[in-house]
Amino acid sequence: MTFIRKHPLVTLIGVLGIVFMWLPIFVVVLNAMNGDATLVTWGGFTSRWIRQAVSDPGVRSGLVTSLQVGLLTTVVSVFAALTGVLWWRRATPRGRRIFDVFVYVRLVLPAVVSATALFLIFTRVGVQLGVATTVIGQSVWDSAFATVILQARVRLLDPAVEEAAADLGARPASVFFRVTLPGLLPGILAAAVLAFSLSFDDVVTAFFLAGSHVTTLPLLIFGLIRFNVSPEVNAIGTFVTVLLIAVTFVFVWIMGRSGSGKRSLTRDLGY
Amino acid sequence: MLLVAVFFLAPLALIAVYSLGTTSIVTFVTHFGWTLSNYTSLRSSLYLGTIERSLLLSASATLACAVLAVPIAFFIVSQRGRTQVLLLLAVIVPFWTSFLIRIYAWTNILQNGGLLESALRHLGLLHGSLNVLYTPTAIAIGIVYGYLPLMVLPVYVALERLDPTVLEAAEDLGSHGWHFMWRIVVPLARPGLIAGALLVGIPATGEFVTPQILGGGKTLMLGNVIATQFLDIGNLSFGSALAMCLIAIVIVMLLVQPLLRRVRRT
Question: Quick check: ipTM above 0.85?
Fold first, then answer.
């Protein structure tokens, strides 16, 4: 649509808008290497904050906890989404509608609500808050996202191929593991990457469900920054940002290989 | 499905039950019953103020997102294939980095003596100190920034599906500038704007992280008050009533959406 005469103001807001989205991230990365401890001016390059963050035992244990929680959440979410979607595929239209409503409600409900609801039930039943409860809490939300991605993928799967395999004498298990699962694999990988990055970024669910002894990296950062600006947080933030951007590129790469171009990208993100 | 029932529906039902009971904040024992006392105490000015503030902040942030998203999305759509994909990635990638860090980044920018203040000083627009961090304005900026991609993407999708000849026809018929944006592009982007308004408005109303960081815990939104009731005060039933209130707001927003779509068609 290059022939449309572009209004200069539109171009200006468009460019500024994209700068606006990146500027704060650059500020964090630059301040992670800022020699001025008050972060008001640029005080020259220093690796002090990065070294401080790397050697901080709190950061290390937070990172380990986050990775644990993230991996467990990924496994639980993808498993739940996969079994759900396989059921959805064979369900009646009515069953499908009910399933879709459940997924949709989990996507739109603010995390505060589902986290408090789980908090109530865990404290009521007397379950000790910790890694397991955090994983369950995050999975409720993350599995809904994973489900949307897998649904998009399963639509591309032609049932005739599976039927052909069965007709040629493959047993149901072998049809599943050698035909269905490989067909869904890009979707499964994308869902896993998404679930992990959602979990790795989660504050609200962990805030309610991690209890007082378990601290994930976002919870640690959240505690550090509630009332002050500290250079060390910028260093941790830079690390987290780089990690998540890398994860995003893996996601985009998988999407690029499995579907094609921007259309599938936007569709798989749920639009 | 079973998992959904156990870990999602049951807790929600429990919230409803708790919200009708009473919790003693001395002994932390909850008595279940059919009382509306929690809901009547919602009427106190403190909590009404919080609900009002949450809605107001969420609504203004959603509006600001819409105003920014239309030109941004239109700008992206009007580029050629490869640039378009790159710009789209430029919108998506920041959204995928840590929400917490992106919100925190604004404390660097908004603090007194920070980037924004010195920029405004250099432009001669500001002489005293900025004093914007830890105010509702800072929260609104944070929410707009945090959720802008969720508005840009659906608007982009709506504009991308457009028939270019429609826009061409409008141009040939002499529509330019503001008229072109307001009368041609905005109506065509409407489905995306409605979807985006829900994607931004709903989480923004229940926002918890942004008011804590950019509001300095002083300006509270519904999400923060719920957290305080549950984790600090321990009044589980009143907290549940607040959570029910948030659920009700979300349901109203979802119900308004089809109405909006219908109004425009007639």
Answer: no
